[in-house]
Every structure is written in structure tokens, then in C-alpha cells.
Design goal:
By secondary structure, the chain is mainly alpha-helical. The chain has one domain: Up-down Bundle (Four Helix Bundle (Hemerythrin (Met), subunit A)). It has four helices and two strands. The chain has a two-stranded antiparallel sheet. α2 runs antiparallel to α4. The chain is globular. The termini are far apart.
């Protein structure tokens, strides 16, 4: 298992990159959805906050509860981001207060079988990355260029590795 500090740092880094995406999203995209039965951009933002609390509750209480992602959690982009940040701060504070051995305790996953709590943290991270990719696709569909996740476009990266330079000869 990764250390408690590394897990928390990784999660904080994922959120930082997600916020970079959300800062580029126009406020008028909040209600946009690709189809009537799919999440809107606002739904995704609110869902990320609510599921973050859900994952943390599962770690600490060994039960799963989801409070929903309705507009009452933030109708505007600003309000939804505030909800997301409130959830994140509460969960980060809670994770930091857990003892390292609590990350190894067994808790039930959504299917009912037991896994280590650190795996639930990893699932929370993976879940956010999934929805960040979804937001990226939504933005691009609406001609909004999302930020580059690590600052460069693939075309800006050198095309040959040092070991490959002699292979063409």
C-alpha cells in the first residue's frame, strides 16, 4: 500500500487538475448534456462532491450512502464548485485525521465484499479521473478546448527518445 501521505497527496493532485478543467468550462455549459438521460456538466460536478463524501463514509462507517447530485447542491457553476470544494476539504481533513493503520482495515465495497480502505481511496481517485475525462469530452463537443493535463500537447513533446536516435542509421 502507498503511505497515507502519498494517497492523500495523489488525491489532492487529481482534484487540482480537475479544477483546472472546470475553470475553463463556460458557466453556460452547466445544463448541457449529450442526451436527455445523461449527466449534465453540473450533474458531474455535484456528483463528484457527493461521491467523495460517499467514499469517505464507506471508509469510516463501512456503509455506502449517496446523497445525490441534484441542482439544490449548486445550480450555478460557482455554487457547484463551492459544493465540490466543501466536500473535498471535509474529506481531505477526515483522511488526514485517520491513523495510517485505518487505511489497511477491511471495509465492504459496493458489491458487498471486503477490501482494504486504501483501495476505496484509490477507487475515489479513479472515479474522479473518469468523470474528468467525461467533462473533457463534453467541453470538446462544445468547441471548448480543455487545458492540457500536464501543460503540454502531445505535439510539443520530442518525437524520439535518446536510445531511438541511433536506430534509424
Amino acid at each position: 500500500m502507498l503511505s497515507k501521505e502519498v494517497l492523500i497527496s495523489q488525491f489532492a493532485g487529481v482534484r487540482k487538475r480537475t479544477l483546472k478543467y472546470l475553470q475553463e468550462m463556460p458557466a453556460d455549459m452547466m445544463d448541457w448534456r449529450p442526451a436527455p438521460d445523461k449527466f449534465s456538466c453540473g450533474d458531474i460536478i455535484r456528483h463528484l462532491g457527493s461521491t467523495e463524501r460517499m467514499f469517505y463514509h464507506a471508509i469510516t462507517e463501512n456503509e455506502w450512502k449517496y446523497t445525490g447530485h441534484g441542482p439544490e447542491k449548486g445550480e450555478t457553476l460557482e455554487a457547484a464548485l463551492h459544493y465540490l470544494q466543501d466536500c473535498h476539504e471535509a474529506v481531505l481533513t477526515g483522511l488526514q485525521q485517520l491513523e495510517p493503520e485505518q487505511f489497511n482495515k477491511k471495509v465492504k465495497n459496493l458489491l458487498g465484499y471486503e477490501v482494504s480502505a486504501w483501495r476505496i481511496v484509490m477507487a475515489m481517485i479513479e472515479h474522479e479521473i473518469h468523470h474528468r475525462g467525461q467533462l473533457s469530452a463534453y467541453m470538446q463537443t462544445n468547441q471548448v478546448q480543455p487545458p492540457q493535463i500536464f501543460g503540454l500537447q502531445i505535439e510539443q513533446i520530442p518525437t524520439a527518445l535518446p536510445d531511438d536516435q541511433n536506430r534509424d542509421e
